[in-house]
Amino acid sequence: MKFPRSKKILFANNKGGVGKTTLAFNCAMSFAKQGYKTVLIDLDPQCNLSRLALGDINYAGTLFSSTYKDIYDVLRGVIEGGSDIDLSVPTIPVSNSDGNLFLLKGNVNLSLYENLLVSAYGQAAAGQQLGYFQTSAIDRFLRERGMSDEVDIFVIDTSPSLSLLNQIIFLGADYFVVPMMPDAFSVQGIENLGVVFEKWKQNWKVTGKALSGNTESKFVLSGDGLFIGYIVNSYNVYGKQPIADHRAWMEKIPERVKKFLSEKHGRNGLVEKSWKNPLAEIQDYGRIPAKCQEIGVAIFDLDPSMIDDIHIGTKENIEKSKEEFQHLSSEILKILGSY
């Protein structure tokens, strides 16, 4: 392992369509290519990360089959009762990753676990051990498998909702990154995130965590996820710079990030670092991401010949993506190694 312990990083935004899943996958692939053993954890019932990692053709035949075990198999004993998490569920190797990237596939039935959490969270908040046992299920799986499999980084993808499931995921994460687009809706999304995440953390500290008593620490979520930065994604380019409307929003975003995320969820030197500049600015790559979804490869690994009517701009964009994701992943890795 390259880190003393496994790091759990969450890609989150209250707004859908900001490229969260695509960024999570491409960052994970970049970590893997730099020698970090990385595992993708698909905790979105839509299972988009699973589809992207496996490729559309391969995934179509496994969505409702038992070809690959998934997150529901991990949680089945907890959801159906009478047992605990299944630590034997294997992760799936992801191609083109130098053998360092793996996937725990999502499941559309993850909502059944969320139904259980309604009572479990209340029990944990009242100091009852069953509540801790149930709410910590995903986190305990990651910690146990992180040690046994010597995983450097878990990259977690969730739905954009502020649901109870996402609350539990957030309370167990070590770090979170917020992808956004340069528009008003994304800014609203970060405001929502900052306010709601703060309430989640405070409620957990004064209820669930505070009342844990003699409960084993492995059952108690840390509730201290650190905001490490934001990513501006899918800006449009004209004359080799962002278009005027996107530039205007990109200038407004830092102050909103500072107020709602950095000052509430950062610490030490990261408070200023996390808002002053984005971790990366990723341009709109047009048709490239759609092709990558079809065949299950990172943007920077796409063979230009795979796109019909190839033109010089496509080749340039693929080359540029290599630089952008190298920069993004390096920035994240530096933070993970320091905090």
TrEMBL record:
<protein>
    <recommendedName>
        <fullName>AAA domain-containing protein</fullName>
    </recommendedName>
</protein>
<dbReference type="Pfam" id="PF13614">
    <property type="entry name" value="AAA_31"/>
</dbReference>
<dbReference type="InterPro" id="IPR025669">
    <property type="entry name" value="AAA_dom"/>
</dbReference>
<dbReference type="InterPro" id="IPR027417">
    <property type="entry name" value="P-loop_NTPase"/>
</dbReference>
<dbReference type="InterPro" id="IPR050678">
    <property type="entry name" value="DNA_Partitioning_ATPase"/>
</dbReference>
<feature type="domain" description="AAA">
    <location>
        <begin position="7"/>
        <end position="203"/>
    </location>
</feature>
